[in-house]
């Protein structure tokens, strides 16, 4: 025969059950409230960060910039490295172009100098032949007037320019020169004599004109 629980035992069991239900009821709302407060706290921390940064800026506290991303840093470093690498090559290329340009200019100058030297030689040769011809012509002309009489030479010389007539008469013998001047027109003779005097004066130009 099974003994029935006593009244006291049933009363203790009922009391324990009531206390368990009471604990569950109190724990449920507390757990729910804690779960609801956690996102709020997280949001509060997120909102507090800009506020802290703003207060730091307002209070004179130095705010460090946000670190650059690794991709941005790498790209900037690559650009600097690329510019550094091509700087020397660009400088060498520029110097090479300048050298080529100077060599080209030097070649043009040398070619022009060669042309000028050739023309100078041609002119000097022509001038020498001309002077030789004039000297020979003058010598022949002086020889002709030396053999002429004064009355025959005077009319021809007075028709020439005074400078030319003076240069011829000065190369003739003194006696013959005087006779020719005496046979010339007095006005022309005076002009020729003036040229001869100026040519003999060391203080005047050697050019009779």
From TrEMBL:
Q: Which UniProt keywords apply?
A: Cell projection, Cilium, Flagellum, Signal
- Give positions of region: Disordered: 36-68
In the UniProt record, the signal sequence range is 1-32
Q: Where is the composition biased (Low complexity)?
A: 36-56
Q: What is this protein called?
A: Flagellar motility protein MotE (MotC chaperone)
Origin species, per record, is: Gellertiella hungarica
């Amino acid at each position: 025969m099974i003994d029935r629980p006593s009244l006291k035992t049933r009363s203790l069991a009922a009391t324990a059950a009531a206390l368990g239900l009471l604990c569950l009821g109190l724990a449920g709302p507390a757990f729910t409230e804690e779960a609801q407060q956690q996102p709020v706290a997280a949001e509060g921390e997120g909102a507090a960060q800009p506020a802290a940064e703003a207060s730091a800026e307002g209070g004179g506290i130095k705010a460090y910039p946000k670190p650059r991303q690794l991709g941005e840093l790498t790209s900037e470093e690559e650009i600097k490295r690329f510019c550094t690498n091509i700087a020397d090559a660009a400088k060498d290329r520029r110097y090479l172009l300048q050298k080529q340009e100077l060599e080209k200019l030097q070649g043009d100058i040398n070619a022009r100098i060669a042309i000028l030297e050739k023309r100078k030689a041609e002119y000097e040769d022509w001038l020498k032949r001309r002077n030789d011809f004039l000297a020979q012509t003058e010598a022949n002309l002086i020889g002709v007037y030396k053999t002429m009489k004064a009355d025959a030479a005077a009319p021809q010389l007075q028709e020439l320019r005074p400078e030319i007539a003076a240069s011829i008469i000065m190369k003739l013998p003194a006696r013959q020169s005087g006779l020719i001047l005496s046979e010339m027109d007095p006005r022309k003779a005076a002009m020729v004599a003036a040229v001869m005097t100026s040519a003999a004066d060391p203080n005047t130009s050697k050019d009779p004109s």
